Inverse folding.
């Protein structure tokens, strides 16, 4: 099946399903001689794992990485880096009711339309469980970026209609709060909202913002591999992501040129980084699988009432933060390596 590899020079291929034996991946194109901090990679994965925040799913996976290839004596060999994460806390029986029913707002029906067959247990390959492999690939990429002074920081900036105050953000405190919002007062209200919708058997969406500091001017490949185009593809590949905007985003459509030209451009012009901070946002829809009764369709085309079982996040954005960072790191390191061959 195509679509499982991301990147041009620095490439990540992932495999596995939500309730299979394991998930994992292969990173190819990582330069040799990089001293990998495996504990730092595990720490990034721990931020995404099920059970990492009390506001998320009750599924509790240890998510311990098994390294299979590509390193020797703590350094990368320049060969494919293989890794594995075993699934341990899957409860497949919770999904028996979905064998012949398509959840509204989920990929069940479209997956079956495409392949004629699907793994209904936890969504199979379409599950956000597979993003753990992206976090590992991104964590490796981050260690390449750090050597070039590039830093990537994401955080929750909105849950439902609640928005963080840009003047009150403390980016150093992102991971001190279970919502992953660095505005303490707003984070408290966000947590209350998430618990409220969980109690109702419902879900709520939100926004993850990301800031890239230290990116040099010149990253990006015209015409079809513009830096913001690749960032958009990366972000919209994340489960439940529905929108991407950079710089002034959709507000730019309401402005005049004389007004817009005075604003920061989000760190990218003409698809190429300009040396300024890169700012973008990713909007996530409410989790599709909810306990609240809703109309669904079965395989025979009949309307049925579905009250989904299983363990699901009432709001995906707290656990999406490390995924946004990982995908941004993958894009940035790919373009950083490509830039090194752009001129003599």
């Amino acid at each position: 099946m195509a679509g499982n590899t991301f990147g041009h020079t620095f490439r990540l291929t992932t495999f596995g399903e939500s309730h299979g034996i394991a998930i994992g991946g292969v990173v190819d194109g990582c330069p040799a001689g990089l001293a990998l901090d495996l504990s730092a990679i595990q720490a990034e994965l721990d931020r995404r794992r099920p059970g990492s925040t009390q506001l998320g799913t009750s599924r509790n996976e240890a998510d311990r990485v098994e390294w299979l290839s590509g390193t020797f004596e703590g350094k990368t060999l320049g060969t494919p880096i293989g890794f594995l994460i075993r699934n341990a806390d899957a409860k497949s029986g919770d999904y028996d009711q979905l064998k012949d029913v398509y959840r509204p707002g989920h990929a069940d029906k479209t997956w079956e339309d495409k392949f004629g067959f699907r793994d209904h247990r936890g969504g199979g390959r379409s599950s956000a469980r597979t993003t753990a492999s992206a976090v590992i690939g991104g964590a490796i990429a981050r260690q390449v970026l750090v050597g070039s002074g590039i830093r990537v920081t994401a955080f929750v900036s909105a849950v439902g209609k609640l928005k963080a105050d840009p003047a009150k953000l403390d980016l150093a405190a992102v991971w001190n709060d279970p919502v992953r919002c660095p505005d303490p007062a707003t984070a408290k209200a966000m947590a209350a909202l998430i618990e409220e919708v969980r109690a109702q058997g419902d879900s709520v969406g939100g926004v993850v913002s990301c800031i890239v500091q230290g990116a040099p001017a010149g990253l990006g490949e015209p015409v079809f591999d513009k830096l913001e185009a690749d960032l958009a593809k990366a972000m919209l590949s994340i489960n439940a992501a529905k929108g991407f905007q950079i710089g002034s985003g959709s507000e730019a459509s309401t402005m005049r040129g004389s007004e817009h030209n005075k604003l920061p451009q989000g760190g990218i012009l003409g698809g190429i980084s300009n040396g300024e901070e890169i700012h973008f946002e990713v909007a996530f829809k409410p989790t599709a699988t909810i306990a609240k009764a809703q109309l669904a369709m079965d395989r025979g085309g009949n309307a049925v009432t579905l009250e989904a079982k299983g363990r699901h996040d009432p709001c995906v954005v707290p656990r999406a933060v490390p995924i946004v960072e990982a995908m941004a790191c993958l894009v940035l390191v790919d373009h950083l390596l490509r830039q090194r061959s752009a001129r003599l």
Notes: The longest helix spans residues 317-339. The chain has one domain: 5-339. The domain at 5-339 is CATH 3.60.150.10 (Chorismate synthase, AroC fold). The mean pLDDT is 92.
